[in-house]
Amino acid sequence: MKKKRHETIIRLIEQYCLSTQTDLLEKLKEEGFDTTQATISRDIKDLRLVKKVDEMGRSRYAVDNGDSGELLGKYKSIFSHSVISADFAGNTLVIKCYTGMAQAACAALDSMHWEGLVGTLAGDDTIFALCRTPELAAKMQDAINEIIG
What we know:
Elements: H1 2-15, H2 21-30, H3 37-46, E1 49-53, E2 59-63, H4 71-82, E3 83-89, E4 92-97, H5 102-111, E5 117-122, E6 126-131, H6 134-148
Antiparallel strand pairs: 1-2, 3-4, 4-6, 5-6
Helix pairs in contact: 4-5
């Protein structure tokens, strides 16, 4: 039963934006699993789930690919203190940074694992970020503006 529940959890977090244990618990109940908050907590630990930022700038559960979930706050802090503005044309974002900060901001951006982000290139004070679509670039710009306030 545990293996089936774990497989279902992975499928659910890939399919839905689930950011709390309560959200996950509700979805599991819809799938026919009668479980508790304590079990969900253990499952999250067993599956090494972390919270990551999606293309809309929302935190959501994802499978850990090596980065610790606790680093997300540090990446956002570095990014928010380094970036001045973000704009896009087509599917390319241009992110302006304080002089000398683009490399650190770019590393933080890459580490946040944005959905739809194909790749980045940083200079001294500018980052180019290539997104899959213009719509994803627009959403990413909005999310960046929320982060930098």
